[in-house]
Amino acid sequence: MINRIGGYEHPTSIYYVFIFGSIGIGAAVIIPFVENFYVLCVLLWLTLYFGGAMMPGLTGIMMSSVSPYLRAFGNSTGEIIKNFFGYLPSPFIYGLFNT
Question: Rounded to the nearest 10 degrees, how much is the dihedral formed by the CA atoms of 80, 28, 99, 94?
Answer without folding.
Answer: -20
